[in-house]
């Protein structure tokens, strides 16, 4: 089959590789019909995530048709499913608490040492996201093996377009969990850093949970425009100092809840970001944590901070004093996707959540390297790219 493989920093290629096979009883094989590139994939593309190997197949946002099932799968051939990016067994201690992204069984034991040393406990399994998370082949491919297929995938009713449901695989539940982790109360003012897909779904979710005002922060005009479409007020951090603007907009109190949906690649020329940048280029650190620092400093006393954004390493210049003295709460984590799927599918079917607005480009899988370059370099115009393995590569335009 054809699949998008990582070969190094800014080097991804569509290779011909072996088709996946059923390995365990509960596996299923999915023929991928749609798969998206995520902001998290950019962290791999930029070489920030350790334990990647040349040839690793990327992709953790995908859906498709069931073409093969192991004897323990509950899926049936021909069903259309969306697959969560987190691989969870459904029956361990953590899955019992619906903390699926903390599953103890999704990541094979021989891959667990690095994370155990770094984080104290091994990480759970994720599709297409390094050997630290299991080394699973991802879904930016024609076919993919889905372990624990009786727990993760959600079956999509006939007649519902891929574009409407694909983002159930990650960014929609991630935006939702981000808002849930902000413990939003009716009437709250919520600030959201980053108007990428996660931030934009956090904006929609925050309003659905009763926020009176949502203030969205970014520097790409088109992304800010999308946030305004859902009723957010916006701050362009290149034109206005974010902290000052937030204080002015909240009468000097600060937002009740702050959501960091930027992550370890924060843009911008800020003193703290420059220090992080120097450390990164001298291998003294990996993460640029500007947005979470700012969220903590701007948040009102007694407020809540939610951090869906991904960070990987050990950081410094973390405003622990502000965090403690102001009595803040911080919630974070990889998304427990499985927990949210039935409710969010219903919300889509009832028209309460709009997902298709986000897709700026649909491209054949064969053009995935170009798609990665575009999503990386042209973030104003490119909000989300959906790759279609079945789509023909367009003929070059006649001269
Ligand atoms: N917790 C999870 O399970 C989970 C799931 C998916 C994605 N993520 C993470 O969420 C984050 C966002 O994902 P995405 O797909 O929306 O990514 P993205 O790269 O498309 O969007 C990030 C946005 O942040 C903006 N930004 C950069 N610096 C900023 C700053 N200083 N202030 C305000 N905005 C700034 C960028 O302009 C961009 O629009 C990433 O870190 C990703 O890895 C986490
Ligand atoms: Zn993702
Ligand atoms: Zn489990």
Provide a descriptive summary of the structure in words.
The protein has 399 residues and is an alpha/beta fold. It folds into two domains: 2-170 and 335-388, Quinone Oxidoreductase, Chain A, domain 1, CATH 3.90.180.10; 174-332, 3-Layer(aba) Sandwich (Rossmann fold). 28% of the residues lie in helices and 21% in strands. The strands form four sheets. Strands 3, 5, 6, 9, 10, 17 and 18 form a seven-stranded mixed sheet that branches. Helix 5 crosses helix 6 and helix 5 (171-181) packs across helix 12. The model has no long low-confidence stretch (mean pLDDT 93). One zinc ion binds next to helix 2.
Summarize the structure.
The protein is an alpha/beta fold and 399 residues long.
Layout of helices and strands, plus pairs?
Blueprint: E1 2-8, E2 11-16, E3 28-36, H1 39-45, E4 56-57, E5 61-69, E6 80-83, E7 86-87, H2 93-96, H3 113-119, E8 125-126, E9 143-146, E10 154-155, H4 162-165, H5 171-181, E11 189-193, H6 197-208, E12 213-218, H7 221-229, E13 233-236, H8 242-249, E14 257-260, H9 271-281, H10 290-298, E15 304-307, H11 320-325, E16 329-332, H12 337-349, E17 361-364, H13 368-377, E18 385-388
Parallel strand pairs: 11-12, 11-14, 12-13, 14-15, 15-16, 17-18
Antiparallel strand pairs: 1-2, 1-4, 3-5, 3-9, 3-18, 5-6, 6-10, 7-8
This protein binds nicotinamide-adenine-dinucleotide (NAD) and zinc ion (ZN) (2 copies).
Structural descriptors:
399 residues; alpha/beta; Quinone Oxidoreductase, Chain A, domain 1; 2 domains; 6-stranded parallel beta sheet; 13 helices; 18 strands; 28% helix; globular; binds nicotinamide-adenine-dinucleotide; binds zinc ion
């Amino acid at each position: 089959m054809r699949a998008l493989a990582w070969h190094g920093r800014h080097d991804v290629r569509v290779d011909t590789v072996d088709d996946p096979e059923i390995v365990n009883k509960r596996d299923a094989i999915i023929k991928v019909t749609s798969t998206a590139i995520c902001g998290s994939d950019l962290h791999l593309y930029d070489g920030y995530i350790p334990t990647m190997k040349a040839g690793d197949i990327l992709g953790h946002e995908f859906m498709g048709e069931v073409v093969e099932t192991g004897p323990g799968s509950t899926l049936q051939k021909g069903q259309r499913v969306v697959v969560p990016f987190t691989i969870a067994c459904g029956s361990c201690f953590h899955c019992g608490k619906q903390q699926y992204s903390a599953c103890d069984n999704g990541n094979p034991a021989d891959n667990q040492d690095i994370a155990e040393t770094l984080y104290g406990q091994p990480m759970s399994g994720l599709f297409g996201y390094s050997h630290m998370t299991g080394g699973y082949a991802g879904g930016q491919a024609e076919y993919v093996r889905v372990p624990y297929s009786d727990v993760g995938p959600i079956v999509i009713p006939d007649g519902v377009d891929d574009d409407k449901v694909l983002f159930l695989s990650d960014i929609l539940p991630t935006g939702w969990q981000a808002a849930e982790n902000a413990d939003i109360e009716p009437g709250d003012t919520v600030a959201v850093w980053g108007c990428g897909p996660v931030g934009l779904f956090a904006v929609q979710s925050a309003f659905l949970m009763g926020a009176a005002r949502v203030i969205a922060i970014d520097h790409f005009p088109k992304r800010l425009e999308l946030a305004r479409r859902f009723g957010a007020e916006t701050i362009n951090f290149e034109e206005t100092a974010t902290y000052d603007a937030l204080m002015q907009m909240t009468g000097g109190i600060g937002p009740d809840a702050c959501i960091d949906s930027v992550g370890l690649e924060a843009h911008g020329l800020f003193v703290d970001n420059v220090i992080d940048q120097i450390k990164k280029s001298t291998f003294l650190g990996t993460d640029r944590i500007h947005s979470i620092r700012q969220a903590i400093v701007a948040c009102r006393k007694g407020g809540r901070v939610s951090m869906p954004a991904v960070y990987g390493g050990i950081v410094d210049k973390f405003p622990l004093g502000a965090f403690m003295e102001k009595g803040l709460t911080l919630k974070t984590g990889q998304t427990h996707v499985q927990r949210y799927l039935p409710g969010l599918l219903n919300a889509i079917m009832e028209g309460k959540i709009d997902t298709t607005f986000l897709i700026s480009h649909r491209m054949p899988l064969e053009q995935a390297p170009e798609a990665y370059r575009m999503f990386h370099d042209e973030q104003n115009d490119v909000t989300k790219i959906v790759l279609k393995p079945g789509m023909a590569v367009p003929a070059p335009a006649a001269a």
